[in-house]
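Supplementary Methods. Inverse-folding protocol.

Structures were first reduced to a C-alpha cell string of length 483. This string, shown here, constituted the complete conditioning input.
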C-alpha cells in the first residue's frame, strides 16, 4: 500500500503540476501578444515586442512547453504502475489483464519514441524522442566505427600479395562495405550534430524534389477524377518551366505516364477554344501545361505507343481548333506536335486511319502521300508545318515560340542536335528546303520565306533581285574606280 500510494500521489502531483504550467503558459502567451498593444506608437510597440522576444528566448519558454507533456505522460504511467501493484494483491486474473493492457500501451509508447530515431520521416514521436535521439545515434556511430575497423582489418589481410587473384572479388566487396560504413558514419554524425528538429528540415531539403513530384502527381491524378474546374486551376498553377520535373510524361524506361490524366486535361482545356469566358486565362495556362507535356513526348526519337498518341493527343477534332487559336504559343506548339508525330507515322506501314490523319495534317491527298517516297513525305510534312505556322503570322514570333519553331524544324530536317542551325550541313539543308518551297509556290510562298529569312539570316534570298529604273541606277564604274 505504501508503493501504491507513493506512485498514485506522485502521478497526481505531476498531472496537477502539468495543468498548472499549461494555464501559466496560456497566460504568458496572452501577455506576450497583448502587452505591446498598450502603446499607440509603433516604434514603442516594436521595442516592447523585441524585449519580450529576447526574454522568452533567454528563459527558454519553448523548453518549458516541451517539458509540459512529458510530466503528463509520466503521471499516466506512474498511475498504471500503481494500478498493476494494487490488483496483484487482490486478484491474479484481474492483475494479468491489467498487466497485458498496460504492457501493450507501454510497448506502443516505446515504439513511438524509437521510430523517429530510426526513420527521420516518421511523424510519430514523444517528448522522450528528442532525448533518446542523441544516445541512439552515438551508439550507431560507435557500432559503425567498430564494423569499419573490422572490415579494414579484413581488407588489409585479403590484400596480401600471396594469393591476390583468388581474393579480388572478396576484396572489392569488403571495399564496398567499408565505403558504405564510412558514408553511414558521416550521415549519423550529421544527425547527432543537428538534433531531431534540424535533421527533419535537412532531410526535407535533400528529398524535396522527389517529394514535390510525388505530391503533385498524386494530386494531379486525384483532381482529374473530380471537379474539372479545380483540376484546371491546379494544372494552370504549375509553372511551365517545371512541368517535366513535377509531372513527367515519360519515365526512365521510356513509357508514357499519366495517359488518362493528360487526356482528361487536354479535352477539358481544349473545349471552347476561342471563347471568351471568365476562366479563359486558366484554360489557356492549363492547356499550355498539357501541350508542353505532349510536345516533350512528340520530340522523343521513338514515341511510346505511337498509335494511342496519334489518335488521342493529336486528334484532328481538337488540334484543328488549336491551330487557329488566338494565342500564338498554342498555335505553334499544336502545329509542332502534329508535325513531329507525322514524321514518326511516315516510318510505319500506312493504313486507312493513318492516311486520313496525315491528309488532315498536311493538306495533301491521301493518294499522293501513300505513293510518295519517304523523302517526299518528309518534305510535305515540313512544308505543311512551315506554312501552318508562318502563313497566318503577321508579326514576328516571340523568342519562346521561335525557339520551339527552330527545334521542331531541326527534328524534321534530321539535325535535332543542331536546333540553332549553326553547322554548315544544317544551313545547306534549310536553304535547299526554302528554295524548294519557293519553286513549288512562287507567289504564295513569299510571306513564308520572308518569315524564315528573318529567323535564319544566313539563307540566301530565293527571290529575284528587283530591277530599278535607269534613273536610280548608280553611275557606271570607270577604270580608275575599278583599279
Amino acid at each position: 500500500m505504501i508503493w501504491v500510494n507513493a506512485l498514485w500521489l506522485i502521478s497526481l502531483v505531476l498531472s496537477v503540476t502539468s495543468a498548472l504550467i499549461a494555464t501559466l503558459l496560456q497566460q504568458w502567451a496572452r501577455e506576450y501578444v497583448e502587452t505591446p498593444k498598450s502603446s499607440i506608437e509603433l516604434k514603442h510597440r516594436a521595442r516592447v515586442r523585441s524585449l519580450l522576444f529576447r526574454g522568452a528566448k533567454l528563459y527558454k519558454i519553448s523548453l518549458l512547453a516541451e517539458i509540459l507533456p512529458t510530466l503528463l505522460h509520466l503521471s499516466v504511467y506512474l498511475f498504471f504502475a500503481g494500478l498493476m501493484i494494487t490488483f496483484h494483491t487482490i486478484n491474479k486474473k484481474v492483475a494479468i489483464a491489467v498487466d497485458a493492457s498496460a504492457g501493450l500501451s507501454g510497448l506502443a509508447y516505446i515504439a513511438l519514441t524509437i521510430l523517429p530515431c530510426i526513420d527521420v520521416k516518421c511523424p510519430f514521436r514523444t517528448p522522450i524522442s528528442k532525448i533518446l535521439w542523441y544516445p541512439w545515434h552515438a551508439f550507431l556511430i560507435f557500432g559503425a566505427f567498430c564494423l569499419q575497423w573490422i572490415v579494414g582489418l579484413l581488407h588489409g589481410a585479403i590484400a596480401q600479395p600471396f594469393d591476390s587473384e583468388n581474393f579480388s572479388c572478396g576484396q572489392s566487396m569488403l571495399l564496398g562495405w567499408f565505403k558504405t560504413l564510412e558514408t553511414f558514419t558521416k550521415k549519423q554524425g550529421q544527425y547527432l550534430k543537428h538534433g531531431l528538429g534540424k535533421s527533419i528540415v535537412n532531410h526535407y531539403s535533400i528529398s524535396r524534389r522527389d517529394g514535390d513530384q510525388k505530391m503533385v502527381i498524386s494530386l494531379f491524378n486525384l483532381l482529374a477524377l473530380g471537379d474539372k474546374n479545380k483540376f484546371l486551376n491546379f494544372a494552370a498553377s504549375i509553372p511551365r518551366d517545371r512541368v517535366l520535373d513535377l509531372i513527367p510524361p515519360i519515365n526512365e524506361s521510356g513509357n508514357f505516364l499519366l495517359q488518362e490524366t493528360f487526356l482528361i486535361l487536354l479535352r477539358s482545356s481544349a473545349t471552347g477554344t476561342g471563347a471568351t469566358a471568365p476562366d479563359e486565362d486558366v484554360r489557356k495556362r492549363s492547356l499550355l501545361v498539357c501541350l508542353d507535356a505532349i510536345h516533350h513526348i512528340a520530340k522523343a526519337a521513338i514515341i511510346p505507343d505511337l498509335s494511342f498518341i496519334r489518335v488521342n493527343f493529336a486528334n484532328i477534332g481538337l488540334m484543328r481548333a488549336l491551330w487557329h487559336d488566338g494565342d500564338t504559343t498554342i498555335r505553334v506548339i499544336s502545329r509542332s506536335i502534329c508535325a513531329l508525330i507525322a514524321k514518326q507515322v511516315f516510318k510505319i506501314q500506312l493504313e486507312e486511319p493513318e492516311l486520313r490523319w496525315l491528309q488532315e495534317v498536311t493538306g495533301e491527298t491521301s493518294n499522293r502521300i501513300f505513293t510518295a517516297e519517304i523523302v517526299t513525305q518528309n518534305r510535305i510534312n515540313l512544308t505543311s508545318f512551315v506554312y501552318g505556322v508562318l502563313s497566318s503570322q503577321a508579326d514576328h514570333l516571340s523568342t519562346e515560340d521561335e525557339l520551339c519553331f527552330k527545334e521542331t524544324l531541326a527534328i524534321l530536317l534530321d539535325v535535332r542536335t543542331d536546333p540553332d542551325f549553326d553547322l554548315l550541313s544544317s544551313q545547306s539543308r534549310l536553304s535547299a528546303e526554302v528554295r524548294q518551297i519557293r519553286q513549288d509556290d512562287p507567289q504564295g510562298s513569299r510571306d513564308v520565306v520572308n518569315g524564315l529569312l528573318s529567323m535564319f539570316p544566313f539563307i540566301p534570298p530565293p527571290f529575284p533581285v528587283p530591277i530599278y529604273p535607269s534613273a536610280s541606277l548608280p553611275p557606271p564604274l570607270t577604270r580608275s574606280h575599278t583599279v
